[in-house]
Amino acid sequence: MELTGQLIKILPETTGQGARGPWIKQEFVIETKDQYPKKACFSVWGDKVDILRKFGMDDMVKVSFNVESREHQTTGRWYTELRAWRIDRAGNESGYSAPMPAYSNSAPEPTVPKSAENAEGMTFSNEQADDLPF
């Protein structure tokens, strides 16, 4: 998944010691520039923390991420994390990983022939097809 927005907050690094050795995590918040702006908090782990340091407050970024949920063992509550695996400057593929191929969010316009035949074998023209009340 991807989300683009303005980097509005970088939270302090969190470190710890796990069964597989030391770990580091940092969270950051972006705000979308939609009609109804939304804020989302992402986390980066390990060496990706260094990538986050390349960005400053108010930078426009495109974040590629995975959504992960897990259940707390003792309380039974579920927690959801947006784990970023790629961060780029918005409109620029200068992030830390190889650029992804460009794509368009909009589907191509369907073409309707001047006359077409429906499943019952009836032929209609565009003039008849445009006669819909909505």
Radius of gyration, whole Å: 23 Å
Output the helix-strand order: EEEEHEEEEH
How would you sum up the global shape? globular
What percent strand? Answer: over 45%
Structure class? mainly beta
Largest sheet: 6 strands, antiparallel
Low-confidence stretches: 93-107
Helicity, as a percent range = under 10%
What is the end-to-end distance? 34 Å
**Mean pLDDT figure:** 80
Number of helices: 2
Number of strands: 8
Please give a handful of descriptors for the protein shown.
134 residues; single chain; 6-stranded antiparallel beta sheet; 8 strands; mainly beta; globular
What would your notes on this structure say?
With 134 residues, the protein is mainly beta. It is built from 2 helices and 8 strands. Strands 1, 2, 3, 4, 5 and 6 form a 6-stranded antiparallel β-sheet that branches. Strands 7-8 form a two-stranded antiparallel sheet. Strand 7 and strand 8 form a beta hairpin. It is globular and about 55 Å long.
